[in-house]
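User: what does the whole thing look like in 3D?
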Amino acid sequence: MLGARSDLPLEQDESSRFIPYIIALMVYLATLALAGALVADSAVERWSRGLSGSLTVQITPGRDADPAERKSRIENAIALLDQTPGVTHAEALSDERIAALLEPWLGEAATSDLPLPAIIDVRVDPAVPLDIQALSHRLADAVPGATVDDHQRWLRQLIGYGHSVEFIAALILAFIALAAAIATVFGTRTALAIHRNVIEVMHLIGATDTYVARQFQAHALGIALRGGTVGFLVAVLTLIIVEYLTEAAGGGLLPSLALAPWQWAVLPILPVATAAIAMMTARTTVVRTLARMV
Amino acid sequence: MDQREPVVRFENVGMRYGMGPEVLRDITFSLPTGSFHFLTGPSGAGKSSLLKLMYLAHRPSRGLISLFGHDMAMTDRRDMPALRRRIGVVFQDFRLIDHLSALDNVALPLRVSGAKDVQIREHVAELLAWVGLAEHLDATPPTLSGGQQQRVAIARAVINRPSLLLADEPTGNVDNELGVRLLYLFEELNRLGTTVLVASHNEGLVKRFNHPQLHLENGALRRVPSVRRTVA
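Assistant: Here's the predicted 3D structure for the full assembly of 526 residues, as structure tokens:
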């Protein structure tokens, strides 16, 4: 009887059967790409925040590694730093802390046997301009073996890497959106060709192009949401597994791949956006095609 | 629309398919509001082509076509659906939508006009009952006989109380008794103001109902007045 149904048998079309699978695959890949970009962005932000406003002064151990000499150099360096305008705090890292930092790379035994450099963590006021090169020269003159690292080279590389990852992710998302649109265009055109007779009858009894297009766009929205939801859920499962495996295997070596709650909240935009693209593409394709009819 | 303005007006209309020869040549006629005509002529004379021009499925190669006072050459494509809703068409090959029930097929013109299901349900069921299909409301066209399909097609054409009814061989697949009943339905609609043009081969029916004829032969049209009435 008169139930909710389409005038066009689009659900029975063989031509559109493959589209939910394609959409699922595309949303799966898009979700992973976006998650990757968000993780990279967070990591860069974290590292950048940690490194800016700080310097590291490293004092290489002398040949005889005399502890008293080492202590004296550290004190001299800290005294010089404390007198430098813009330096808010200078503190030497304990040997235990240095060993802990190196342990994941060198192992426990190696760190206990090796002569370790002294490291001074320096906090600077970002508002006060600091001539790093002059400070470096003054430190090197006053304290043999002292070098200053303002992390800028590392930070530049890191930010460059982060931007590259974000650019690639954006490119992947753009390709996926394009692929979703192309798949929808072909699926819709095929359906238009299959149902040409029915559409013609609908036209002849007074259906507007938008009336016909509404049926196609509702169908496209339905299948894209179905496919997109499946792809998204599988991607979420993949992310959870990857996060678990990274935590389990990486320890402090691998950067965290965990997404923040707001980042998890961003991801569902993808299946919704893909469905919207499919819907709008179907509508545009139908309206443009029908505009060529009498 | 001005009541004196004919519902349909053709002036020197020619039509060809693609680059082929003209199937209609210099067709000039008009259908006054509320008139009833038969369109007669041998097979291949161009009756269906003439109807296609009238129900806006095809554009003429030349000449002027005016429907409801609108010059079709000057009418925007976006205004066509509103004009088509005023035209009821019974196609020769029915052109029913196979996956829809008889009820939904007949309801389609109302649906595309934006009518609500509750408004159309009762009306559609009543009309299908009138054409003898009360027991087949939920049947899809492929499960119906040719005659039953034709009645569904007729019901779909008249459900909207069209201003112009065009019927291409509407009695071709029904027995004589039902054919007469259907023509009475068309006459009833005509009395209510619908302009009717029926293309038919059935000489018996044409004579029995004795309306003026437009006779097509070799792509050219001539008028055959009825015995009692004349074409305006």
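In plain terms: The first strand of chain A starts at residue 54 and ends at 59. Chain A touches chain B at residues 1-2, 5, 7, 9, 12, 197-198, 200-208, 211, 291, 294 (CB under 8 Å).
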